Amino acid sequence: MERRQTAFLFDLDGTLVDSVYQHVLAWHEALEHEGIRLSVWRIHRRIGMSGGLLTDMLLRETGTALDPERSERLQRLHAESYGRRSKEIRPLPGAKELLAYLTDAGIPWTIATSGRMETARPTLDALGVDPEKIPVVTRDQVRFAKPDPDLFLAAAARLGVAIEDSYVVGDSVWDMLAARRARALGIGVMSGGYGEAELERAGAFRVYEDPLGLLNHIDEVGGRR
Fold this sequence. Notes:
Pfam families: Hydrolase
Radius of gyration: 17 Å
Oligomer: single chain
Strand order of the largest sheet: 3-2-1-4-5-6
Protein name: HAD family hydrolase
GO molecular function, one term: sugar-phosphatase activity
Distance between the termini: 18 Å
Keywords: Hydrolase
Number of strands: 6
Structural class: alpha/beta
Mean pLDDT: 89
CATH architecture of the largest domain: 3-Layer(aba) Sandwich
C-alpha cells in the first residue's frame, strides 16, 4: 500500500513566532486612536481571526457604528503600530528547529496566516522564511480568513497534498475551528495564550506548550523521517 503524504500547515503568530501580544497592543492603540475604549483581554480573545472580522466583532461589542472607511482606517493604524513593534518579535522556542526537521525529513510544510503580507513579512523575516521559496498563504490570497477554512485549504493545495492528510498547527481556537471545517487534524500550542482545555474543546487532538514541545513529540503525530 502506498504511504499517504503527511503535511503540516502552520499558523504564524503565536504558533511559530512570539508576536500575539504585539498584535494585541497594536489593535489596542488603533482602537484608542479612534476613540474606542476596549479592554486588552477582549482584544486578545479575538487574535487569530481576520482583521476585518476582528474589528467587526470588537466594535459590535462596544456598540460603535462601523463603516468601510473606518474599518480600513483601523486596519491601517494596526499595521502601522504593529510595524513599530516588529523589532521585538522573536521565533518561539523550537520553531526554527521544527521547520528544519520537517525539511530534512522531506515532510511538506507551509504557513497560513490571517495576517496580510504587510504585517506577516517582519515575522517571516524573524523566522528566516522566504516566501519566494516557501509557499506562504496570507489573508490577501483567500476570500475568508479564520475561522473559515479557506487559508488551510489553500495551503494544502499549494503543497499538492490532501487536506485530510494534513495537520493544522495553531495557537488559537480559531485555528482549531478552521481545521475542523477544513477536515484536517488540529494540533494546538499554548504559546499564544489559549489553554489546553480551550484548544481541545475547539477540536485539537494534541496540545503542546510551544513548537519545541511539538518537535520533542513529533513521533506522536506521524512526523517520521
